[in-house]
Every structure is written in structure tokens, then in C-alpha cells.
Design brief:
By secondary structure, this protein is of the alpha+beta class. The protein has two domains: 139 residues, Hotdog Thioesterase (Thiol Ester Dehydrase, Chain A, Roll); 140 residues, Thiol Ester Dehydrase, Chain A (Roll). Helix content is 19%, strand content 40%. It is built from five helices and 13 strands. Strands 1, 4, 5, 6, 7, 8, 9, 10, 11, 12 and 13 form an eleven-stranded antiparallel sheet that branches. A two-stranded antiparallel sheet has the order 2-3. The longest helix is centred in the N-terminal third of the chain and has 18 residues. The termini are far apart.
Length: 281
């Protein structure tokens, strides 16, 4: 299904010269709504019944190139797997020449008012089954570790979950979690005497590149979210961080995030050595 066609990147989607990492999640959400409507299981129908539509439980994403304001973006979606209550969708984001911008795999469940995953209606499961694609693309971070076994820092930050961060179901919106992780990283850099604003110029460092997060519990309204970050590998290509997110001390999300460096055209480039100084022991 081609759910977004020739979308022109707009100023409000940018962070500097390139799109904000959260914009990728926005496009995924728009695409998911289109898919849900196509299989006659609309977000509106689910919300009217008090449910949380197509909540992500496993998210893996790889960004090949960050779009800029000159880009037009297409998003195609195909189902890879369907279960009793879950569906795994593959999202492919391409530019006007057909070049890959980003690829994402997301497993979704619809959560009922009692907090349990609802079974997919038979017609919905059948519609997804009829369109299944036999494809297993590698998406998300690899298995990189430091070859020298060097130690790296651990840091964390906390944020209260208030109304600007929640969706209609009184839970934190899933695109906010990588944003909170990014804030923790920015605070760490500042504490180490490095300003992200001073680093950004021709190169745009510490942008999301590859990540895989598993959601194990919701983050409710008015809870306190603690983001724990363990840096596990650093080189000129990537800063690899293990993230654990706690809602009032209960683990809600665990995953691996790789941050990369990109130029102003959106292409991946190596970090400058000076950018990596804060991660030295």
C-alpha cells in the first residue's frame, strides 16, 4: 500500500536543515492510519470503543538519509506477519528518485479499555493475511561493540509525563520516547562541557540512525519517566546506547539506539574526533 505519496517536506518538520527524528514517527503514524482504514479497522472506530489503536510494541528503524526541505517523500507499507492480536508492518520511505530514506518494522497491537491486547477482528486478520509479503529485511542496530573493551559513561534524566506528551488514551505518545532519550544525551554532553549547538554546523551529529526498542508496559499520564542510558560502543561512525525507560520505577521500554552524524544534505558522514571526546573515560 502506498499510504503517503509525494509528501513535500515542510519547515515545521525540520530540526535545523534536516527533518526531526520525530517526523519519521509522524509519517509512520499517518501511514498506519491509512492502513487501518484500508482494512476497515479505523482509528476512529477503535477510539470510540475506548481502545488504543495499533500501539507499537516492537519498533525497529534504520535511516539511510535524512530528508531536507527540498525532498518529496513516499511511504509504502506491507504486512510481514499477522497474529491473533498483532500485525507487523514494514514501512519504506523513499525520495522522488526512489532512493531509500528510511525503513521501519513495527509490531502493533490494539489495546482495549482494560489494558489487554484485543484480538484482531476476523475480517481484519484476513485482509492482512491476503497481503502478507515474504520478506525479512534487516532493520535497526547491529551488534557493534568496542573492540578494545573500553569503558563508557552511563547517564540518565527524568521527566514528568504531562498533557503535552500524551495521546488521547492518557498514555505517553510513543514518538516522545526517543525525544526524551535525546534530551538525556544533550544534557550529558552539556555536563561534559560540550554544547550540541556549537557542534552542529556543516555536520549534524547525534541524530537517530538505527534503533530497536521493545515496549513492555505503558507510560501513564502524571507518571515520572526515567531514561537510563548506557553507552556501549563509540567510533567515528556511531555512538551506540542501551536505553532503559522506567515509569515510576517500572521498566516500560528497553532497546538499543545508534546515533550517527549527517551532513546538511542528509547523508551519513563520520563524526569529528572532537565530537566524541565527552565519551572518553
Amino acid at each position: 500500500m502506498q499510504t503517503i505519496t509525494s509528501h513535500r517536506v515542510q519547515f515545521g518538520e525540520l530540526a535545523g536543515p534536516l527533518i526531526h527524528g520525530a517526523t519519521v514517527f509522524d509519517w509512520q503514524l499517518i501511514a498506519t492510519q491509512q492502513v487501518a482504514a484500508a482494512v476497515e479497522y479505523s482509528f476512529g472506530e477503535i477510539l470510540d470503543d475506548g481502545g488504543i489503536p495499533f500501539a507499537p510494541v516492537v519498533v525497529g528503524t534504520t535511516i539511510e538519509r535524512y530528508p531536507t526541505i527540498e525532498d518529496r517523500v513516499d511511504v509504502d507499507v506491507v504486512p510481514l506477519n499477522v497474529g491473533t492480536s498483532s500485525v507487523e508492518l514494514l514501512y519504506e520511505m523513499t525520495d522522488r528518485e526512489g532512493g531509500t530514506l528510511a525503513t521501519a518494522r513495527m509490531t502493533h497491537v490494539t489495546i482495549g479499555p482494560d489494558g489487554t491486547a484485543l484480538p484482531l477482528p476476523d475480517r481484519v486478520r484476513s485482509a492482512f493475511t491476503d497481503q502478507l509479503v515474504d520478506w525479512d529485511p534487516e532493520v535497526g542496530p547491529g551488534e557493534a561493540t568496542d573492540s578494545d573493551g573500553g569503558s563508557h559513561p552511563t547517564f540518565e534524566s527524568s521527566v514528568p509525563i504531562r498533557s503535552p506528551h500524551i495521546e488521547g488514551a492518557k498514555l505517553a505518545y510513543f514518538e516522545e520516547y526517543p525525544r526524551f532519550a535525546g534530551i538525556a544525551l544533550e544534557e550529558f554532553l552539556r555536563e561534559r562541557g560540550t554544547s550540541l549547538g556549537e557542534l552542529s554546523g556543516e555536520k549534524q551529529p547525534f541524530r537517530l540512525r538505527d534503533w530497536r526498542w521493545e515496549h513492555t508496559a505503558p507510560v501513564p499520564f502524571e507518571s515520572t519517566l526515567r531514561v537510563k542510558c548506557d553507552v556501549i560502543a563509540v567510533d567515528r561512525e556511531t555512538v551506540r546506547v542501551e536505553h532503559t525507560l522506567f515509569a515510576d520505577d517500572q521498566v516500560s521500554i528497553k532497546g538499543i539506539t545508534e546515533y550517527g552524524c549527517f551532513d546538511r544534505s542528509g547523508a551519513a558522514v563520520p563524526f569529528d574526533e572532537s565530537m566524541l571526546v565527552p565519551f572518553e573515560s
